[in-house]
Each structure stands twice: as structure tokens, then as C-alpha cells.
Amino acid sequence: MNTKDPSTLKQIVKQKYGEIAGQLERQGASTCCGSGCGCSSESDVMAEKYTNVIGYVKEADLGLGCGIPTEFAKINSGDTVVDLGSGAGNDCFVACSIVGEEGRVIGVDMTERMVARANENKGKLGFGNVEFRLGDIEEIPVESNTADVVVSNCVLNLVPDKRKAFGEMFRIIKPGGHFTISDVVLEGNLPDHLRDVAAMYAGCVSGAIQQADYLALLGKTGFRNIAVVKTREIRLPDELLLQYVSQDELQQYRNSGAGIFSITVYGEKP
Length: 270
Description:
- The chain is α/β, with parallel strands linked by helices.
- It has a single domain (6-268), classed as Rossmann fold, CATH 3.40.50.150.
- It has helices spanning 6-27, 40-46, 90-99, 112-125, 162-172, 192-201, 211-221, 238-241, 247-256, and strands at 80-84, 104-109, 130-134, 147-153, 173-187, 224-233, 259-268.
- The chain is globular.
- The chain starts with 5 loop residues before the first helix and ends with a strand.
């Protein structure tokens, strides 16, 4: 199987997150790292804690993110917010608490089971101003110039055609609107075998590109005032890496400045 083929990559991602949602249904777990999921170490490294975030709904947090984009999203009361790769609705429900009854939140996800789980959470919470749509981020099912704010959490790095995804994001944002994305990027030259290990350990690393290329692509799309507002290293445990490299190779890697990072990026549509 050619895992570099865009359609194959997309199918792998869809299958993985569908399995996570299905496993949660069977277990009744509230996060992807519930009993038997086998991803607790990944979640500890990747995800940030939402515990003190207003509007946080524990049941909607699957531990699949790598940041808290709403923290820097400058969402106002009455805004229309679109969340790309909305999962079980975590960031959508946080946004709902900010936009209020006059605002609107649209979550988009390409996995049927995730959309179903998000709607189940919505039903329990009784929110009337949020909807979840099944769709592809490379062809977002949202009308042009709809969103005041777009958010996304550790999803766009998984999209095979980032240029097309960023173009779609640009299309749906209103003139003068903006985005805030948390995503995984690379900095420096990561040895191939270490990158393979990282991808096995934390699946979202597999689609990560160099930070400079990521930011340049956003600029070429047409966004302005692009800024990295938060950076956090995704530090894989030494005991994991030492299963694949020598102590000397590990030390060389640690001293090289290269690595995997979670960044939160802000940008505006003119």
C-alpha cells in the first residue's frame, strides 16, 4: 500500500479516528485514553489540559489535540466560528460559551462516528447555536465569507494537500476575519528513523512539515499578520527513542536543536 498517496493517507486518518470514536462508544470512556485505548503516553505528550478553560466539556475532550486554539482566537460575542476537524466537539463547545446565543459555531469533521459523537454531546448539553457537518477540509462544506474566526486543533497537519486546505480556510473566512490553529510542525532536520518512530508514537507527526514551510504556505494563501503565538516542544521520551537509537545518537539529536513542536498560529484575511 502506498501510504504517500493522498487518498490513502486520508483514508488511514479517517479509519484511525473512526476507530477511536467507536472504541469510546464501546467503552463509555470520556477520552481517547480511556481503559484499553493504549494511547495514554501519546496524550500526555501531545495534548494540553483544558481543565480551567471556560466552557470545557470533559465528555467532548478525546485528548487528540496539541494545543488550545480558542485561548488565542479573539472570539467575540455574536461571532460565527468554524472548527476544522471538530472531533467530539471540544473546541466547538468552548467557542459556544464565548459567542453566546447571538453567535454561531460550525464544526466540520470527515469521520461519521466523530460527527455522531459530537451530536450526541450537543444533545446532552442542549446547545442550539452549534451544528456539526460531515465534510473534508480540502472541500469545506461552508459557504464563502461565513466565519469571523476559524479554529483547528492538531488536524491540518494531517491533511495531504495543505495548500488546498489553507485556500479553503481563506475562502470561508470573512474579509477582516482571522484564524487560530494549533498544529504540529518540524524544526530542523529530523533523522528519518527518528521521524518514523515519532510517527508511530504520535500519529499526527506523520503529516508534519517544517515550520518555515508551514508559515510560508499560509502567507502564499493570502493571509496577513501571521504570528506564532505559542510554541511547545513535543519531547519524545528518551526510553522510547533508545529502543531505536544509541545513547550517542540520542545525545546528538538532543543537541542539534531539531525537533517536533506544537505551535499555535494566528493570521488574518485582509
